[in-house]
Amino acid sequence: MKYMMFVCTDTAPDTDKSDEPDIDVWVSENDARGRRLEGSVLAPTSAATTVRVRNGKLLVSDGPFTETKEVIVGYDLLECADLDEAIEVARAHPMARAGRLELRPLVDLDG
């Protein structure tokens, strides 16, 4: 099953800095096991563009509309046997301690 893992900042990161995981090791390990299909860091929210259509009119604005301190800073597309495996993959990611990770299963629109 495929999961989109949103990598987010958090206003209350873990204060225990012992044995912090290394992102390069996490990427290499999960790429080698075929559990990480792709991933990337996102440009800052100042580079974002919001697109909406209201009453037939295109509305384009710079950045996100909401004032928030917690933002999506990256993503990883995972392929795992089930949610339990996806949670274990996310648990080992450095941002599980420095931020937060949101896992969402992809919906199979073909079946």
Annotate the secondary structure layout.
Blueprint: E1 2-8, H1 23-32, E2 36-41, E3 49-54, E4 57-62, E5 72-79, H2 83-91, H3 95-98, E6 100-105
Antiparallel strand pairs: 1-5, 1-6, 2-5, 3-4
Pfam families: YCII (PF03795)
Family: Belongs to the YciI family.
Domain YCII-related: 44-108
Key terms:
Alpha-Beta Plaits; Dimeric_a/b-barrel; two-stranded antiparallel sheet; YciI family protein; alpha+beta; single chain; 35% strand; four-stranded antiparallel sheet; YCII; 111 residues
Number of contiguous helices: 3
Q: Based on the structure given, which CATH architecture is correct?
A: 2-Layer Sandwich
Task: Tell me the CATH superfamily.
Answer: Dimeric alpha+beta barrel
Mean pLDDT comes to 92
Low-confidence segments: none
Task: Give the SSE string.
Answer: EHEEEEHHE
Describe the structure.
Belongs to the YciI family. Residues 44-108 form the YCII-related domain. Pfam families: YCII. The chain has 111 residues and is α+β, with helices and mostly antiparallel strands. It has one domain (2-15, 31-105): Alpha-Beta Plaits. 21% of the residues lie in helices and 35% in strands. It has helices at 23-32, 83-91, 95-98; strands at residues 2-8, 36-41, 49-54, 57-62, 72-79, 100-105. The strands form two sheets. A four-stranded antiparallel sheet has the order 2-5-1-6. β3 (49-54) and β4 form a beta hairpin. The longest helix is centred in the first third of the chain and has 10 residues, at 23-32. It is globular, with a radius of gyration of 16 Å. It starts with a strand and ends in a 6-residue tail after the last strand. The model has no long low-confidence stretch (mean pLDDT 92).
